Amino acid sequence: MSTQNPTSTARALATVVVLCFGSLSAALMQSLVIPIQSELPQLLSTSASTASWVVTATLLGGGVAMPVSGRLADMYGRKPVLVVSAAILLLGSLVCAISSSVGFVLIGRVLQGVAMGYIPVAISMVREAAPAHMRNTAVAGVSATLGVGGALGLPLAAWIAQSYEWHLLFWVAAALAVAMLALTAAVVPHVAGPHHGRLDVVGAVGLAVGLVGLLVGVSKGNDWGWTSVQTVGMIALGVVVLLLWGWFELRQTDPLVDLRTTARRPVLLTNIAAVLIGFGMMAQSIVVPQLLQMPESVGGLGQTILMAGIWMAPGGLMMMLFTPVSSWMLTRLGARVTMAVGAAVLAGGYLVATLLMAAPWQLMLASCVICAGVGIGYAAMPTLILTNVPRSESAAGVGLNSLMRSMGTTIAGAVMAVVLTSNTVAVAPGVPEVPARGAFQLCFVIGAVAAAVGALIVLGIARERRSPAEPGPRVDREAVPA
After folding, report:
1. Beta-ladder partners of 434
2. Do residues 401 and 382 touch, judged by C-beta distance below 8 A?
3. Which residues on adjacent β-strands are paired with residue 425?
4. Nearest-angstrom CA–CA distance, 257 and 192
5. What is the rounded radius of gyration, in angstroms, for the C-alpha atoms of the chain?
6. Lowest mean pLDDT among 184-198, 250-264, 377-391
7. CA 409 to each of CA 89, 198, 215, 453: distance values in angstroms, whole numbers, following the listed order
8. Around Cβ 250, how many Cβ atoms within 10 Å?
9. What is the pLDDT of residues 162-178, one digit of tens each?
10. What is the model's pTM?
11. Considering Cα of 24, then 30, then 33, then 35, what sign does the dihedral take?
12. Are 378 and 38 in contact, with CB atoms under 8 Å apart?
């Protein structure tokens, strides 16, 4: 049971709203530069391969920050980590807003990625801050922002990029960070961290090196070539370092990540399913915009970047609109069944997409079904994690789960790129080829298979003994079933 004194419903609601806003602001950084990605080499006076790091840098920063931020929150309390994350977002946004050189923009984008550590801490915070009758809704709402931010950021960024100078993207991000910082400092209550120990610095560095190697190799494999020395070397480096990191962590009395808890069946299966559902979310985020923007002469729908973002926006809103539905399902069906249903809906959405590709409204409809599944699945994930880890590791557990989602999105990006570039058609002499219609359909099928496998994995988790909405004692480590 949380040691926090009961708060009024109004104060709890204010806290949840602020944490949702902060998480949404941090998640927006994922898609902030996508509308100007093709123009970055000219804007930053650099090569296309170097400019592509502006997108990858945020992914790397977020991947490293999520588990580390969670651990720090368990040690020092949620609020200090939330406030520092918001301040880092402000700093990173300002660095990008006043810079036109690729080096400084990369630094700023890494900092914006680090600020995404706000999200798992916010998820674990609302679980404790909200009263029992609001708990599932609060967790579902904050968790959904990880997908909503990326979906809504695309049309917003496209509109700003097409109508104004590109630096305004980062001034808007800075304004959001100021509001996020002020509201978090003023509204979110401070509760002492449940875990008293030291930060495993060696473990944090080892995890960072391993993740960077693995994520860089996977995300750049299509550009460098999957058999190139750079790709194989980075992936091998990441795998070796992560294996050594795991060996080291198992021998620590106060590890950064308790791998024994993580290896228990409910947590392990939830994290594996998180990779697959994260894959499913990112697949449509990559494939649908390309199909919308592709010329009509080769089977595309001929939409501008802005219009493609607008057609995609309802999917992001669907995730948020499904928050009360997800909450009801968590209360009535439990997190296990809810997550399996979300993955099944996600798979069904991709099957719908294979048939509805002839008009923008059809893809919008398919995207709404896909995003509804993502929203339901994302709502259930943290509840499964928080129910099956000790309270002293709750934020770290959610942070690792968020990292698994990000791993899924990275793998999806690599797989979709391979599929879309392996089956192409010519547009005109001297113009780069574009993906064939069959390549898009294959991407949708792969997304459906990944989601369906995720649903089957989730069903392998033991049934909950009580509803996750019911108040009760936190699960002690010794009490968690193996």
Report:
1. 425
2. yes
3. 434
4. 20
5. 21
6. 184-198
7. 22, 31, 10, 16
8. 12
9. 778 889 999 999 999 99
10. 0.80
11. negative
12. no
